[in-house]
């Protein structure tokens, strides 16, 4: 079996709001083979930049479009192909969008392997730790603290035992920050876990102060309160408070995660399969985290391709903690793009059993939303 082509398909919602919601567009990657088996992946990044990284021509030996590097390769040789993509685009691919683009191809290759062998990806990765995984309802904050409380109550009514709110309007001022968390806890009641995603808004001293004010509301974790390169700030924060500190969605490969773990001293390592280099790199990051006694969770605010990938990944590692599951109440782009919808029931997600990732594109929907 040989790779014959790589598609990078940019799809976009009819209405894109000015908010931190990466589910409003998507870059879907599809890898084709001469055996008639194709695989799906996704890139959560700047979509057109990642598309260029995939579709660009050969420039020179360390700056090539990724499609040029993988055509003709055996899709089962995922480790070799990962190394070839990394070294063949090392000028643009060591971090950021180049690494993100590699992720989409790597995911698609594992999907091909699973389909060809009739096995789910988690089994190919040697997993099988779970039949179900607990998920948290992931949402933006409501426009006001009171609206956030109402949202929290509705998520509890839908069966979630954990809920996360994030980004704007957190960070405007201390009173608003505290009110958001207070009303979220009030809406959840005493039992469910409350997760807080600050959205990169504070310095370390402010974050320490906020955590201490949030303690009475018993937050499960504080996510990404600092800018991602402030590893020393993360260390000061982690050493000063008892609340779990979670981060990682801004990181790319193992080297940057080592900075976050060893220098930043975070407690929960968040891995986005569509950014870190796909399954091939994600399982290595999880092993590094386990060596340090750390738990891993996924990040994913995009399509069901990403959700499925996260479930396969988390079922393949011993230190999985919880799954992010976007629970926005309005119909989103992801509800149209695949034939399958991955639905949370009683706050749990079933582990996929179908070959590969277990998701297929709805071609009519893709054509409707496709930009290029």
CATH homology-level superfamily of the largest domain: Enolase-like C-terminal domain
Mean pLDDT: 96
Q: What class would the helix/strand composition place it in?
A: alpha/beta
Q: Tell me the CATH architecture of the largest domain.
A: Alpha-Beta Barrel
Q: What characteristic shape results from the CA principal axes? A: globular
Work out the helicity level. 40-55%
Low-confidence stretches: none
Structural account:
By secondary structure, the protein is an alpha/beta fold. It has two domains: 3-119 and 364-369, Enolase-like, domain 1 (2-Layer Sandwich); 124-362, Enolase-like C-terminal domain (TIM Barrel). It has helices at 47-55, 66-70, 78-88, 90-93, 96-117, 121-124, 145-157, 174-188, 204-214, 231-240, 254-263, 278-291, 304-314, 334-337, 363-369; strands at 3-12, 25-33, 39-43, 58-60, 63-64, 132-140, 162-166, 193-197, 219-223, 244-247, 268-271, 295-298, 323-326, 348-350. Strands 6, 7, 8, 9, 10, 11, 12, 13 and 14 form a nine-stranded mixed sheet that branches. A three-stranded antiparallel sheet has the order 1-2-3, with helices on both faces. Strand 7, helix 8 and strand 8 form a beta-alpha-beta unit. Helix 11 packs parallel to helix 12. The longest helix is centred in the first third of the chain and has 22 residues, at 96-117. The two termini are 28 Å apart. The model has no long low-confidence stretch (mean pLDDT 96).
